[in-house]
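A.,

Following up on our hallway conversation. Structure tokens first:
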């Protein structure tokens, strides 16, 4: 098989894949999938330009071929940013992607220069994608990343080989369609690499969709906090760990006060907004490893790791202050809450026991007039009375 025929096979392959990908994945996809689709489309256009170069205008269409190939690898690099993790060096990737076709076009009259320049530029882009694929991304699967790394890595080696031949052993490598082993290897490799990259991209996209589904299954849609089921699952694991290391742990159940009034006065939408605002305040007070969920209705649950009653009291003070700050920007009735605390004094205590104790304390807080934090029969609130600045926080104990 000659090189020209293999390139036509590559074009047919990549063109059909570039149509099949959006047909299979749909148009409304994540940014990562969109970049992967863009990369394949850019490949298809690139090989179309390559075939036109001979028939129309070699310099222009060969330079366009380089431009679209560079764009293809820049898009692949961006797909990895979304699927794996943001990596440094975006400007460098784009600089190489722009300089490769520009240098090729400017130095077109020198065959050794343009072949070396273009192949080294493209190989640099492939290597950049390979590096971003192998850098740590604990949430992402290893298999599709392995396939992508090997496929692009082999192509990068063959591309470097072609660049070195064209630039430094020009007489052995007179042109791209010559039946040289490097050309045959590259022409054979292209359809294989395109197939493998497509399969790896589909696997990455499926993995991303699974992750999103899992996130949605664990999240309360209105507030974005964990839902009750996910909270219980994670809290059980955190409790088991705390037991193993004899760490203290505190659990708070929080209930918004007179929430029905907010709904009655402002409508259900105002109630929803208030729940979102409270969740936002809650998030702003959370530290690494702590868990918060919407336990149901206007009730929230927080698990504080390595925390005793003192730390829970400080958390409550921070939360009241965060709520107070948000109340200042609201025109509707101010939000307030009551909370019940349970601490894991005895390592044998279960999550259900702690939830029950916190719930009883919450009931007491409501009974005693709301707006306070209770631990068993003791009030622990460090509260900022309405209208007073944070500096005026005072300790209220009974
Ligand atoms: N807007 C909105 N309201 C909700 C949602 N979930 C529960 N509620 C409302 O929350 C209100 C809870 O009312 P109650 O249980 O009487 O409690 P409360 O008015 O906060 O009174 P206290 O707890 O005694 O201070 C009910 O009116 C529910 O309809 C929700 O997702 N959105």
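Then the amino acids I'd put at each of the 398 positions:
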């Amino acid at each position: 098989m000659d090189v020209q025929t293999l390139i036509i096979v590559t074009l047919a392959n990549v063109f059909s894949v570039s149509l099949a990908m959006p047909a299979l994945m749909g148009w409304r996809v994540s940014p990562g999938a969109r970049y992967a689709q863009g990369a394949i489309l850019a490949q298809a256009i690139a090989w179309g330009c390559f075939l036109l170069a001979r028939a129309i205008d070699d310099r222009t269409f060969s330079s366009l071929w380089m431009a679209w190939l560079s764009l293809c690898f820049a898009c692949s690099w961006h797909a990895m940013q979304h699927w794996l993790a943001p990596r440094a060096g975006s400007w460098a990737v784009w600089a190489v992607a722009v300089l490769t076709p520009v240098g090729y076009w400017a130095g077109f009259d020198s065959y050794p220069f343009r072949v070396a320049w273009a192949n080294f530029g493209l190989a640099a882009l492939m290597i950049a994608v390979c590096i971003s694929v192998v850098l740590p991304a604990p949430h992402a699967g290893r298999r599709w990343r392995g396939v992508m790394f090997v496929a692009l890595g082999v192509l990068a080696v063959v591309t470097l080989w072609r660049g070195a031949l064209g630039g430094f052993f020009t007489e052995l490598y007179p042109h791209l369609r010559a039946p040289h082993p490097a050309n045959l290897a590259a022409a054979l490799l292209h359809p294989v690499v395109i197939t493998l990259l497509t399969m790896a991209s589909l696997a990455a996209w499926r993995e991303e969709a699974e992750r999103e589904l899992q996130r949605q299954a664990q999240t309360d849609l209105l507030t974005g906090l964990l839902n009750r089921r996910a909270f219980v699952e994670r809290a059980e694991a955190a409790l088991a760990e705390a037991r193993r290391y004899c760490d203290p742990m505190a659990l708070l159940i929080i209930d918004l006060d007179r929430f029905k009034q907010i709904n009655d006065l402002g409508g259900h939408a105002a109630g929803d907004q208030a729940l979102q605002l409270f969740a936002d305040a809650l998030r702003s007070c959370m530290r690494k490893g702590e868990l918060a969920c919407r336990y149901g209705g206007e009730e929230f649950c927080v698990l504080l790791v390595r925390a005793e009653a003192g730390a829970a009291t400080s958390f409550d003070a921070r939360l009241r202050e965060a709520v107070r700050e948000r109340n200042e920007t609201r025109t509707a009735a101010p939000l307030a809450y009551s909370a019940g605390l349970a601490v894991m004094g005895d390592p044998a205590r279960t999550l259900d026991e702690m939830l029950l104790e916190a719930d009883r304390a919450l009931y007491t807080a409501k009974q005693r007039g709301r707006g306070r934090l209770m631990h068993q029969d003791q009030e622990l609130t460090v509260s900022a009375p309405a209208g007073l600045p944070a500096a005026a926080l005072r300790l209220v104990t009974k």
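Residues 222, 255-260, 263, 268, 271-272, 275, 297-298, 366, 370 surround guanosine-5'-triphosphate (CB under 6 Å). Curious whether your intuition agrees with the design.

B.
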